[in-house]
């Protein structure tokens, strides 16, 4: 059903910057209302509408084609009749398709193509849609009957093409490839360019599915080297973009994806345009081209919304996440809040709404509105539970708990941590690392507020990390235990745990965390009125490890306090002055503009 677009212009994308082309699509997203001048032109418009699942528009275009100049040309009329029959069949209206099939068969007989007429009369709608398994057997037998040595025939190519569709569904691309390859060979031999373009498009996709990317690329190039309507060109540009992306040929992938977006958008193939724009957005993001990525996500969302596809929610979510990654929190909030409100009250897509609320919470947290974030995350947890995603619900509660703890809202933090722990602890289905996070967080919170039961949770966390975690995570739990013991008034045990954590961090090549644990141990020693031991530890942490200047400041201030307690005020003053100088340098560095 692909034509040469005799009187329809095929838009060839320009060489303007991607951002300009994407902005243009955002400003003019709707397909222009093109009027064909001939029946040949209406064939293309009908095909494009059908490919874009705009079946009413496809039927109208084909009907107008039957009344247009050139409709008396037999091949054109046959194509229009097939489009009309196929469109109605795809809409589930076989009764409406039947008259067009009948008229097509009658025309074939008038043209003397009696064998083709008989085949189409027998098979009917099987040639217009994906056949079921029983119909596939009928098609298989028909293909064998037509392979009688009398030479290639269009109707055998039709039968092979329909059979290939079913074979792809049931057995995979390797089973479909020989069928559709033979169909292409027949159509090429018979010089049927319209049908050949459609068959080659199928062949290219089957080759890609069978992991023969270069063959798929070559087939797509064959299709694109001949005149074709915008839907076909858009599909082949998308395939090329996919192949180039997989091969890490990013320049070619970007160019083809952009071409596909423009062609699909121009002819109203919304789902295709949205997919191509999403691919372009992902590639741009991988290249750190955030401006292009955001614009491409916006185009993808807009195209999906114009097509009223459910995928628009996931695309909006991706746009929101891209904005969060760019630290454009105000714009991210707008996108994610609009998505959340749009999905509110529905009885489906709880998962997408939950993720939108999680992103929304992060956006408002960065804008210093933590209470709103906690509310969003609590609601997100409820959405995830409705979607039966207990792991995600647990993560939402743990995030809310961490935020509540940072605000010193102890009861709220405890509620969220306990709820997160309950959801994370799912027996055989438990994600051990999430359970570890829940136990760690709750244990630390309880110990900080002098509840010794928190140590039980930390002990269980250590059991899990020993079996499932890393050495660094074991060090982290040990460090938390040290700080928890301090809160419980067990200073000696806390120092021992902190020094153990320091050794473990060092073994994991984290010098900064090791020094931090040693400085913490020294601070506890100072509180226990052991300034000599404290001063030694403060000094060793700074002198024996490669650490940040911020930790060096902590070490200097700790040493100064210890020396004061030891009756050495002059030495303490020297260290204090050194610490103040270093802090001033750090403050100046923070004020300087940062280059990318």
Automatic annotation (TrEMBL):
SUPFAM superfamilies: TPR-like (SSF48452)
InterPro entries on file: TPR-like_helical_dom_sf
Protein name: Tetratricopeptide repeat protein
Organism: Nesterenkonia sphaerica
